Sequence to fold (418 residues):
Amino acid sequence: MAMTKKPVTGMKDILPAEMQVRDYVIGLIQETYKSFGFSHIETPCMENIGNLSSKQGGENEKLIFKVLKRGEKLHIPEAQTEADVVDCGMRYDLTVPLSRYYANNSASLPSPFKALQMGNVWRADRPQRGRFRQFMQCDIDILGDPTCLAEIELMSATTTLLGKLGFSGFKVCFNDRRVLKAMAAYSGFPEADYDKVFIILDKMDKIGRDGVCSELLESGFSGESVERYMELFAALEQGQDGLSLLEEKLSGVIDGGVIPGMRTILDSVRAAASCEFSLVFDPTLVRGMSYYTGSIFEIKMEELGGSVAGGGRYDEMIGRFTGMNTPACGFSIGFERIITILMEKGFQIPKQPVKKAFLMEKGMPAEEMVKVLERAGKERQSGAQVLVAHMNKNKKFQKEQLQKEGYGEIVEFFKEKH
Fold:
């Protein structure tokens, strides 16, 4: 049976041109986030299946690549349940692993702890443009800070990074799960049904206010609650200050510090902006992860027609490991989506080193080859990137390929004639 040369569905081979862009973006991410005081860490690609299936990952828990037990621990014929053959899985995001990491290592870490984590994650999802089954995630998280400074730092660092990559005019949408719950409570929805309400609300940008209204009614919610809920969104669409409106309407069903805190975040991030973008309060922003407990945010770009970054506060997740809740807030950029946009734009890496190619005639004596290698070494010491290779029979095609790869200078070396 012939070997298959194509990669597994939803995964891809990365050619040198894209890899150069990826390496540059990864370096810029590290440089930018470290300038904000984030420390680079790493967690394993696999996690205990119980951690991954703890009802905190939302729909992602349906997309886990599960790993069979190994060696003598695997008894497939006798297995009665999945637990008999599966004990771990590939991580579907970096937040659950980070929570376990912090719970395991907090005694050795500063407080608050600002973590930068980059690595591949795996989801058994339906592949599409900018979405794969194996993909890189880049997260920054602040653990141990209950104040809105965490949100301000996360938003400022992420927007600064996108600005350095040449992006501008993107939209940062901001909301709070406590506002979502207060709006549902004000409208009279049962608390047990909040998540069901939010799932329908999350479709607002696709089906509009009338569509959300119809789905809520079809789901059996009372007409009075739906009408009051829709009146809230209608009032918010009038263009007035949405936070002031909700502060008035939701008085008595929301903690008095929530909306002033949101206002502080919005004002501070706008004041500290290092590139052009809009930051807006979006009362329809839901984000699907059930672990979010407070602020939630998302960055949208017209080029992709969707979100390229998202995150929020998840103050209760670490407590699932330790028994004691720890303030936590994080922001994740869609690395693959950003790379997709950059490649489609024909992104050129700035300040690249000079690239030279030294092509040697085949059969060159060792003493002459050493001279070429010594010259290449000196060029590298001066900062140039030098490729040393033998000339191919089709030298013209070889040089064309090198020029496509950015080699601006090609030097040919021939055997000395005696």
